[in-house]
Design a protein that fits this description.
Elements lengths: L1 E10 L2 E11 L4 E5 L6 H8 L7 E6 L2 E2 L5 H10 E4 L11 H10 L14 H13 L15 H14 L4 E5 L7 H18 L3 E4 L3 H7 L2 E6 L2 E6 L9
Parallel strand pairs: 3-8, 3-9, 6-7, 7-8
Antiparallel strand pairs: 1-2, 1-4, 4-5, 9-10
The structure holds adenosine-5'-diphosphate (2 copies).
Pfam family, one: ABC_tran
InterPro entries: AAA+_ATPase (IPR003593), ABC_transporter-like_ATP-bd (IPR003439), ABC_transporter-like_CS (IPR017871), ABC_transpr_PhnC (IPR012693), MetN_ABC_transporter-like (IPR050086), P-loop_NTPase (IPR027417)
Protein name: Phosphonate ABC transporter ATP-binding protein
Length: 236
């Protein structure tokens, strides 16, 4: 279980995240909504420790992960899968190589490096792609795929890390409505089947209502709503 205790992040005069506290269970699909500048991205970056909190504590199963350093910090980052708006695939590399990057955690030097990946990793990569209906595209270059397909490849790459926590920063913001649905359904399935918490920043309240088990609304860095989508009032 993930717990935040009074987590704040200050950038000079700006309080980007203001004393945020909540806990999140395995199997929850939490949508974070709020206007641009509300602190959503900063919050995700604090969770995977790309950014250090100015105040407060973040714990995972009781262990404080907000002060980790060195190899313990790198290990925590590997346990947090990150999914981005812009997919961040290497466009000219093929799909399976893009997914295998999930086991090394960095970009390979050449696509020919694929032969150095153990067969077991390649088999896992194909399984993850298959779970997202993308195994048929394994040998295609990423650049040839639609945005929705690229995002599914990015999710497969993230799953190869066997994450404890999935963090997605506006994963459907650059997709058309149909692809946005496909990607949200994929996250929903992963959340249910793998029993991991998924925290997803969304700018669409409609998508949050339809897919999330819980919605957290932020304004000026603070949590202003936290509950099931059914409890959201229309004006939130
Ligand atoms: P959101 O993701 O909800 O759009 P952000 O987390 O990106 O919001 O930003 C929250 C606030 O923190 C904004 O006022 C933004 O300008 C500020 N901020 C974010 N990152 C930085 C940074 N690296 N340096 C200074 N200010 C930042
Ligand atoms: P090709 O498939 O055209 O023979 P490569 O397999 O060497 O070329 O790489 C494919 C593409 O992946 C390159 O054009 C490059 O843009 C990108 N690429 C490869 N390695 C890296 C790297 N270490 N960092 C960034 N981009 C890379």
């Amino acid at each position: 279980m993930l717990e935040l205790h009074g987590v704040s992040k200050r950038f000079g005069e700006t309080l980007a995240v203001n004393s945020v506290s909540f806990s999140c269970q395995r199997g929850e699909l939490v949508g974070i909504i709020g206007r641009s500048g509300a602190g959503k991205s900063t919050l995700l970056r604090l969770l995977n420790r790309l950014s250090d909190p100015s105040e407060g504590r973040i714990t995972w199963d009781g262990e404080d992960v907000s002060r980790l350093k060195g190899s313990a910090l790198r290990k925590w980052r590997r346990r947090c899968a990150m999914i981005f708006q812009q997919f961040n695939l290497s466009p000219r590399l093929d799909v399976i190589t893009n997914v295998l990057v999930g086991v090394v955690g960095e970009r390979p030097l050449m696509s020919s490096l694929i032969k150095f990946f153990p067969a077991a990793d390649r088999a896992r990569a194909i399984l993850e792609l298959d779970a997202l209906d993308m195994a048929g595209a394994a040998l295609q270059r990423a650049v040839t795929l639609s945005g929705g397909q690229q995002q599914r490849v990015a999710i497969a790459r993230a799953m190869l890390q066997e994450p404890d926590l999935i963090l997605a920063d506006e994963p459907v913001a650059s997709l058309d409505p149909v692809n946005a649905e496909v990607v949200m359904e994929a996250l929903q399935k992963i959340c249910r089947e793998r029993n991991v918490p998924v925290i997803v920043n969304l700018h669409s309240l409609d998508i949050a209502r339809r897919y999330c088990t819980r919605v957290i609304a932020m304004a000026k860095g603070a949590v202003v709503f936290d509950g099931p989508p059914s409890a959201l009032t229309p004006q939130v």
